[in-house]
Amino acid sequence: MRVRADRERCIGAGLCVLTAPEVFEHDDDEGLVIILEATPAAHHRDNVELARRLCPAGVISVEPA
Ligand code: SF4
């Protein structure tokens, strides 16, 4: 699994950080998403997929690695 997030369209809502904190983080300056683990372990898959669905800006994508 490979995770991407389009920071240009991120609105900093933070649902991804709450849902999968091992994979997503906010940067301190702009409050926009940072990917901590672009290829997260398989046991994070469900939370990453939930974060993708919950992202209000629709900027998270998940692809097969
Ligand atoms: S949930 Fe979406 S809009 Fe909110 S911080 Fe994460 S990537 Fe950005």
UniProtKB/TrEMBL annotation:
It comes from the Bacteria. Its cofactor is [3Fe-4S] cluster. Coiled coil: none annotated. It holds the Pfam family Fer4_13. PROSITE patterns: 4FE4S_FER_2. InterPro entries: 3Fe4S_ferredoxin, 4Fe4S_Fe-S-bd, Fe-S_cluster_ET. Gene3D superfamilies: 3.30.70.20. Residues 1-29 form the 4Fe-4S ferredoxin-type domain. Keywords: 3Fe-4S, Electron transport, Iron, Iron-sulfur, Metal-binding, Transport. Ferredoxins are iron-sulfur proteins that transfer electrons in a wide variety of metabolic reactions. This is Ferredoxin. It comes from Protofrankia coriariae. The lineage of its organism: Bacteria, Bacillati, Actinomycetota, Actinomycetes, Frankiales.
